[in-house]
Amino acid sequence: MAKRPIFEETAAPATAPAPRAGIEAPKGARRAIQIWLGLLFVMVLAMITVGGMTRLTDSGLSITEWRPLSGALPPMSQADWQSEFDLYQQIDQFHLLNADMTLGEFKRIYWWEWSHRQLGRAVGLVWAVGFLFFWATRRIPSGWTGRLILPGALGGVQGAIGWWMVSSGITQGDGVTSVASYRLALHLGLAFVILGVIAWYTLLLGRPEAQLLQARRAREAKLFSMSTGLMHFAFLQILLGALVAGIDAGRGYTDWPLMAGGVFPPGMWDLTPVWRNLFENDGTVQFIHRVSGYLVAIFGVVVWARGRRSAYGDTRKAFHMVLGALSLQIVLGIVTVMYGAPLELGIAHQLMAVLLWVLIIRARYLAQYPLGRTIRGPHERFRQHRRA
Predict the structure, then answer these.
(1) Which of 345, 321, 344 is nearest to 334 (CA)?
(2) Domain limits at 327?
(3) Annotated binding site for heme
(4) Which residues are part of a known binding site?
(5) Does the pLDDT value for residue 14 go beyond 80?
(6) Domain end: 206, 237, 271, which one?
(7) 116 plus 236 within the same structural domain
(8) Contacts for 114 with CB less than 8 Å, ≥ 6 apart
(9) How high is the pLDDT of residue 373?
(10) Weakest-pLDDT range from 113-122, 218-227, 364-373
(11) Domain match, 183 and 101 both
(12) Which residues does heme bind (predicted)?
């Protein structure tokens, strides 16, 4: 009889057992979803850009009805165009600002608003098709279903807010020629929220959950908290910028650093009740936007000073990029005001806000989930401490 091996119980089986199914989606799903979210990001960015062009060309009230489905088709005949023009001729903006407008001139502003709305429909379609595909094929990673629903839900709310904003300017006999500035601020603010959510999710999907969990153990909590504060502060500045755009306050005072030769603009609190000055007084609104910009700049430098001392090279670079974008945005804002907010500078200022917003989110992400490990020795830490 052959002798039994001593370690028979622990010997490896002849064939390895089949791997157990994990809780994650099939391999590659995270990357595919990341690409889908990247497409949505580009489309939302295009919407923000076209929306800015629509606002700066005073085109937002050219379509006076909300037709989510039938409005997808533009006027197809001369009679259709005349019908749309007739509707526009009934509102106050036409009577007070564009009474001599021709049908050809109307078509130019109509196309801006129609393109903005069409992009909104396209974003909703791309989100719905993508989500249903990943859900039906079980490619959504565990815990991500609700997250991926969120951009679509916010997009639906955004469409309703968009019409709520436009409806505030479609008046007859009230003397209103533009949308309410606070509704415009809410509309733009939600667009930035959607953009921020997509950017954050895209960053999270760039690494497997196991790597994220491991990276979070090395998180820089104080830096993450400070960058979160900077993100919120930048968002407030974006809302204030929308108030400026809503009443064309950027074109009223073109000197800097003073306003009409003084520290404070004249008539800051002339409107009654007093709270109306915060939304409707061009001098007050621009002054608040300027002061808020200075405060964001100061806080941004404080956050950067903390970020430059990070133990991780990628994190330090991320905060250097934030400071660079913040500096460029400040210069661009000053130049935009001094030149009376022309179309090109106004759009550039808005797009720079998008870039700064995304860079802050990325820096915040790297503070929460650092890349790699620190390679600093004691001498480099000493030099960093002296520079700080």
Answers:
(1) 345
(2) 215-388
(3) 289, 349
(4) 289, 349
(5) no
(6) 206
(7) no
(8) 63, 71, 74
(9) 60
(10) 364-373
(11) yes
(12) 289, 349
